[in-house]
Amino acid sequence: MKLNPASLLCAAALLVLPLAGVAADKKTETAKPYPLDKCLVSGEKLGADPDMKPHTFTVDGQEVKLCCKSCLKDFNKNKAKYMAKIEEAQKKSK
Fold first, then answer.
1. Which of 14, 56, 71, 92 is positioned for an S-S bond with 66, CB 3.0–4.6 A?
2. CA angle (11 as vertex; 10, 14 as ends), nearest 5
3. How far apart are CA 29 and CA 5, in angstroms?
4. pLDDT band per the 50, 70, 90 thresholds, residue 18
5. What is the CA radius of gyration of the chain?
6. pLDDT at residue 68 is higher than 50
7. Are 10 and 35 in contact (CB under 8 A)?
8. How many other C-beta atoms lie within 10 A of the C-beta of residue 41?
9. Global pTM?
């Protein structure tokens, strides 16, 4: 029996894609919620500009929100400083 390479590719995709979705869902479930209502870098209130959607991502199990993706460059320059701000805000809220 001769197998068609396209059929093998489709079969592999059907097996892998559901697993990728499960991994992504698990990551979202374990992230601690972002405790601030403003951008970690600029200090701008999140959602103040309805045309600008906040840039949200996860770092070491912690959700991080920035007012825009361009703030990511500054965040990456001093990640420890900004993550400390999140930890401080979490302590204050307890």
1. 71
2. 85
3. 37
4. low
5. 19
6. yes
7. no
8. 21
9. 0.66
